[in-house]
From TrEMBL:
<dbReference type="InterPro" id="IPR047255">
    <property type="entry name" value="C2D_MCTP_PRT_plant"/>
</dbReference>
<keyword id="KW-0812">Transmembrane</keyword>
<feature type="domain" description="C2">
    <location>
        <begin position="181"/>
        <end position="304"/>
    </location>
</feature>
<dbReference type="InterPro" id="IPR047259">
    <property type="entry name" value="QUIRKY-like"/>
</dbReference>
<feature type="domain" description="C2">
    <location>
        <begin position="22"/>
        <end position="142"/>
    </location>
</feature>
<dbReference type="InterPro" id="IPR013583">
    <property type="entry name" value="MCTP_C"/>
</dbReference>
<dbReference type="InterPro" id="IPR047257">
    <property type="entry name" value="C2B_MCTP_PRT_plant"/>
</dbReference>
<dbReference type="Pfam" id="PF00168">
    <property type="entry name" value="C2"/>
</dbReference>
<feature type="transmembrane region" description="Helical">
    <location>
        <begin position="714"/>
        <end position="744"/>
    </location>
</feature>
<dbReference type="Pfam" id="PF08372">
    <property type="entry name" value="PRT_C"/>
</dbReference>
<dbReference type="InterPro" id="IPR000008">
    <property type="entry name" value="C2_dom"/>
</dbReference>
<dbReference type="GO" id="GO:0012505">
    <property type="term" value="C:endomembrane system"/>
</dbReference>
<comment type="similarity">
    <text>Belongs to the MCTP family.</text>
</comment>
<protein>
    <recommendedName>
        <fullName>C2 domain-containing protein</fullName>
    </recommendedName>
</protein>
<keyword id="KW-1133">Transmembrane helix</keyword>
<feature type="domain" description="C2">
    <location>
        <begin position="344"/>
        <end position="470"/>
    </location>
</feature>
<feature type="compositionally biased region" description="Basic and acidic residues">
    <location>
        <begin position="1"/>
        <end position="16"/>
    </location>
</feature>
């Protein structure tokens, strides 16, 4: 049973974390000033020398075991090596330290029982403290000891210190929190910074082909050009000139990513019959040598020879001949390749770096903690969550480390981005890691989404630190669900207020989007291809940022049909129009003298504006200024967050949610699909009626002078002639004054019947009579 809706449960909460504070009252400075400091004991195991052999074979297979209380970490082992080099770092959270001594033991790996070689002990009270920007602690050689304290042969190079998460060793260190994770799963829990591959639009202008040789010379060829780049495939329309020298002059647009590993494959094909095409020739073009342009100036075109494939004795051979194709190919550096929804873009810069403007500031994000996370999976008969965060802004993605088996994970990691435009959005997502035990190799597990937060930079005050707990809300087929809260600290620092203000007068997208715009369908298709490229590249990183994560962060499915979203957008429109409707109702009350005093004051104001029309515009702007100053007292103090009421998430019908989560094409039974189709038809029928009514009113306006109704047009033309003469001889102020008095006349001079102009307009003909 779904819980009752409580608005406060989904609201934003202001928090007061102890940001940047050092423990024990030490006045230590750190660049991590947007997170709470977390103390760690670091142990760097460098290398060993002159280790004695313990096996009967005389060999030594050494590894190091670092033990602190109940936590134990081990290095990899080397076979038959007495001078091994590990260079591994171990980090133990100070909150969970249960011992006053850290024990570092060198052991010899054996089949039955590992042999003890020697150990080094450190008293935690004597461990030095280090906080960057202090230089790293230099490792030292320590003589190994027996358990009884006697020195033995062999030395171990170690460095032991107390530090924070700001330490350079922190990201790659083995963490005591992840002691239960096997070695092959450690890579998937570490923090990581990723970069989106540099994306270009590739424009292929297919101009013409010459000297084609069709296989069937008894017919006129129906030729088109097919282009492929990776898994992207586009084709031109068939050439209208059905000759051996066809012409197209058609643009094909692709998305290409650096480094350019794939070739552009073009083939000229002849459509013999539906579903049957004959390849007349093809060519492969390396993108490494394709010219790049930064503006809309045309580049030189080029002829490319075509190679025709002929099957001879079952083997494929290439035979070159004189057929060729005329192309103009370029990599477009003046566009911004859209890989995000245009509503939540985090980067608007063009591809070519020479066109970038200077940055206007710095965005700093502290990912602190999460509270009240729900169990996402079952392990050993109990619910558990292994949470990590992903943040995306511009070309930079960051991924925090995974906190194992915790519903209140503490990350306390801080990241920084350069800001080039304030009208951009940073997206932060929380996910459950399902790949700790080799899950990527078995059963194709997918990391589960816990929730997402978007913060628009233009809604933030500069140099202010925002510390809030954001609700993590997801929509499921069962309804809206709160998965917990994530606590963030955000600061937007502006380097030049003047430059930032100037940006508000600049176009949102680069110049080429307006000089040589792409169609809506092109942008949508190219965005889909760009998203696919980004998700594929990032999923090949180590640790991988998986495809389902990237698609969720980039809102890949935001364009899919949803009855819930349609209702939400309708009520958003009504919310925009409601002030206008309120003004219209207020003016109607003025005209009907509901409040005589207000109506009289409006009459006086109207007379003043008629006598002094030069006061109209200053009065309007002064009124808007006063409204803005008045509302300043109630300006938003908190950044926006996911609004379930605005999204109509809490009131959505279960069947509407099931339709929203359906696959494309549908996987539901025919009866359900038929019911939804009928519902969609009824909604579309109402929209069709509204659109038809709008068309009718427009056609009536056109029919005023079209003489479709000769009597109506004659009356209108005569009225226009008389009105022109009257207005020529009557001062304009008098006309406006009389029209205003007529509009504001007293109710006793009004009647309930429609006015004469409205009656006349409704009688005008429209083209509905000609509709089937």
């Amino acid at each position: 049973m779904q819980r009752p809706f409580r608005p406060e449960e989904y609201s934003l909460k202001e928090t007061s974390p102890h940001l940047g504070g050092a423990a024990s009252g030490d006045k230590l400075t750190t660049t991590y000033d947007l997170v709470e400091q977390m103390q760690y004991l670091y142990v760097r195991v460098g290398k060993a020398k002159e280790l004695p052999s313990k096996d009967v074979t005389g060999s030594c297979d050494p590894y190091v075991e670092v033990k602190l209380g109940n936590y134990k970490g081990t290095t990899r082992h080397f076979e038959k090596k007495t001078n091994p080099e590990w260079n591994q770092v171990f980090a133990f959270s100070k909150e969970r330290i249960q011992s006053s001594v850290v024990e570092i033991t060198v052991k010899d790996k054996d089949f039955v029982k590992d042999d003890f070689i020697g150990r080094v002990l450190f008293d935690l009270n004597e461990v030095p403290k280090r906080v960057p920007p202090d230089s790293p602690l230099a490792p030292q050689w320590y003589r190994l000891e027996e358990r009884n304290g006697h020195k033995v042969k062999g030395e171990l190079m170690l460095a032991v210190w107390m530090g924070t998460q700001a330490d350079e060793a922190f990201p790659e260190a083995w963490h005591s929190d992840a002691a239960s994770v096997p070695g092959d799963g450690l890579a998937s829990i570490r923090s990581k910074v990723y970069l989106t591959p540099k994306l270009w639009y590739l424009r292929v202008n297919v101009i013409e082909a010459q000297d084609l040789i069709p296989n069937d010379r008894t017919r006129f060829p129906e030729v088109y050009v097919k282009a492929m780049l990776g898994n992207q495939a586009l084709r031109t329309r068939p050439s209208p000139s059905r000759t051996l020298n066809p012409m197209w002059n058609e643009d094909l647009m692709f998305v290409a990513a650096e480094p350019f590993e794939e070739h552009l494959i073009l083939s000229v094909e002849d459509r013999i019959a539906p579903g049957k095409d004959d390849v007349l020739g093809r060519t492969a073009i390396s993108l490494q040598h394709v010219p790049r342009r930064l503006d809309h100036k045309l580049l030189n075109s080029q002829w490319y020879n075509l190679a025709k494939h002929v099957i001879v004795d079952g083997e494929q051979k290439e035979t070159k001949f004189s057929s060729r194709v005329h192309l103009r190919i370029c990599l477009e550096g003046g566009y911004h390749v859209l890989d995000e929804s245009t509503h939540y873009s985090s980067d608007l810069r063009p591809t070519a770096k020479p066109l970038w403007k200077h940055s206007i500031g710095i965005l700093e994000l502290g990912i602190l903690t999460a509270q009240g996370l729900l169990p996402m999976k079952t392990k050993d008969g109990r619910g558990t969550t292994d949470a990590y965060c992903v943040a995306k802004y511009g070309q930079k993605w960051v991924r925090t480390r995974t906190i194992i088996d915790s519903f209140t994970p503490k990350w306390n990691e801080q990241y920084t981005w350069e800001v080039y435009d304030p009208c951009t959005v940073i997206t932060i997502g929380v996910f459950d890691n399902c790949h700790l035990n080799g899950g990527e190799k078995a059963n194709g597990a997918r990391d589960t989404r816990i929730g997402k937060v978007r913060i628009r930079l233009s809604t933030l005050e500069t140099d202010r630190v925002y510390t809030h707990a954001y609700p993590l809300i997801v929509l499921t087929p069962a309804g809206v669900k709160k998965m917990g809260e994530v606590q963030l600290a955000v600061r937007f620092t502006c380097s030049s207020l003047l430059n930032m203000m100037h940006l508000y007068s600049q176009p949102l997208l680069p110049k080429m989007h307006y000089v040589h715009p792409l169609s809506v369908i092109q942008v949508d298709n190219l965005r889909r291809q760009a998203t696919n490229i980004v998700s594929t590249r990032l999923s090949r990183a180590e640790p991988p940022l998986r495809k389902e994560i990237v698609e969720y962060m980039l809102d890949v499915d935001s364009h899919m049909w949803s009855m819930r979203k349609s209702k939400a957008n309708f009520f958003r429109i009504m919310g925009v129009l409601s002030p206008l409707i309120a003004v219209a109702k207020w003016f109607d009350q003025i005209c009907h003298w509901r409040n005589p005093l207000t109506t009289i004051l409006i009459h006086i104001l109207f007379v003043i504006l008629v006598l002094y029309p030069e006061l109209i515009l200053p009065t309007i702007f002064l009124y808007l200024f006063l409204i803005g100053v008045w509302y300043y007292r109630w300006r938003p103090r908190q950044p926006p967050h996911m609004d379930t009421r605005l999204s109509h998430a809490e009131s959505a019908h279960p069947d509407e949610l099931d339709e929203e989560f359906d696959t494309f094409p549908t996987s539901r039974p025919p009866d359900i699909v038929r019911m939804r189709y009928d519902r969609l038809r009824s909604v579309a029928g109402r929209i069709q009626t509204v659109v038809g009514d709008l068309a009718t009113q427009g056609e009536r306006l056109q029919s005023l002078l079209s003489w479709r109704d000769p009597r109506a047009t004659a009356l209108f033309v005569t009225f226009c002639f008389v009105a022109a003469i009257v207005l020529y001889v009557t001062p304009f102020r008098v006309v406006v004054f009389l029209a205003g008095l007529y509009t504001l006349r007293h109710p006793r001079f009004r009647h309930r019947m429609p006015s004469v102009p409205l009656n006349f307009f409704r009688r005008l003909p429209a083209r509905t009579d000609s509709m089937l």
